[in-house]
Design a protein that fits this description.
Layout (H helix, E strand, L loop, with lengths): L4 H11 L13 H10 L12 H11 L17 H13 L1
Length: 92
């Protein structure tokens, strides 16, 4: 059976040392930062960048975006993007 969006999010959370969520929620800034670290996207020191900046960096690092462009990642990850991220993390 195909994985749901919630299944993919939880797989990604667990792959980066976060915890499963009982309810369906998008990634927090902290979870996005953990994913950034796992895919070797440097978010710098200090305060966390915007969610769109981190989503764009993640998608760029896993080959879903041709460049690190936050305007192309202004909303939550789509199912195909989650699948690409999960696949990249499985290879780690």
């Amino acid at each position: 059976m195909a994985k749901t969006v919630d299944d993919l999010r939880d797989e990604i959370r667990e792959a980066v040392g976060r915890y499963e969520r009982v309810e369906s929620t998008a990634f927090t800034k902290e979870a996005l930062a953990a994913i950034c670290e796992a895919v070797d996207y440097d978010i710098g020191a200090g305060s966390l960048p915007s969610k769109s900046r981190m989503r764009a960096g993640i998608l760029w690092k896993v080959g879903e975006l041709p460049e690190d462009d936050p305007e192309r990642a202004s909303s939550a990850f789509r199912k195909a993007e989650l699948a690409a991220i999960a696949t990249a993390l499985r290879r780690e």
